[in-house]
Amino acid sequence: MTALSVRDLAVTYRSRGGEVPAVRGVTFDIDDGETLGVAGESGCGKTTMAMALLRLLPATAQVTGNIMFRDEDVLAMKPGRLRSVRWAGMSMVFQGAQHVLNPVHRIGRQIAEAMDAHHLPSGGRRIGDLLESVGLTARRADDYPHELSGGQRQRVMIAMALACEPKLIIADEPTTALDVMVQAQVLDLLRTIGRERGLAMIFVTHDLSVLRAVADRTIVLYAGRIVEQGPTRAVLSEPVHPYAAALAGASPTIGDPTSRFAPSSLSGDPPDPAHLPTGCPFHPRCPRRISGCDTVDVGLRNVGGDARSAACLHVPEAGGRS
What we know:
Layout: E1 2-15, E2 18-31, E3 35-39, H1 46-53, E4 61-69, E5 72-73, H2 79-85, E6 90-93, H3 97-100, H4 107-117, H5 124-133, H6 150-162, E7 168-172, H7 180-197, E8 200-204, H8 208-214, E9 217-222, E10 225-231, H9 232-237, H10 242-249, E11 301-302, E12 309-310
Parallel strand pairs: 3-8, 3-9, 6-7, 7-8
Antiparallel strand pairs: 1-2, 1-4, 4-5, 9-10, 10-12, 11-12
């Protein structure tokens, strides 16, 4: 069953200098039990897209398109219905637990808060069970955030996301600032929880090694748009779009010792969303740019079947040649 269906999602921030498009026409589906990876550099629109799915963006953000959660239009939900969907239908593991957890409240109280809002049992045994399900002892419920390590705080965030038994979890850079060993533990925990509970998960990260470990499918964002999407192994091992190839080349590949010593690099910076270049937004940085890249804004084209697509002039149009 389709857990979430997103069509032509666009997010534009209103500022004194004018409108700034952060997400531009993103479309994807995710099924129950599936993990979707979202990759891209800082500023490509990953977090804005993730926050838009739960309508957590500030009032300066204008969101258009369709976000259908189990056949309900999230953008059309009234406040009461939206509150009932947050945490109980869709929940989020936010980036940087140290900034999300309240430093003056005990862990147990913070986990219970969402459960109380949804009129769910939030007694000590239930809190203890949740903590134990993420690899912490029940007694940690009486601790304050500063008494936990970074990895333990991240596990608390996962316990909070699971507290109301949602059908979809959005994890926004959940392993940022964690050392390699703790990161591996958190990823293994998320994989196990998703498999055992049949959860749909959206995993947002700039670290492609993370997506190789957890994601079934991956979408690559650049300048707020999807430039490549498909099965994770294919997208990261044999990328078609030059930007996806640059991302993959900059990330070491497990099992390939040479990739640690000769990572590729990409010159330049991502474009200013308020002043996007004409044509393909990646063309000023693209090592494979050709005539037309600076004038033609190419949409996604199928790559060897419906399961994979890329937005590049090097990809042949259906029935034509590149």
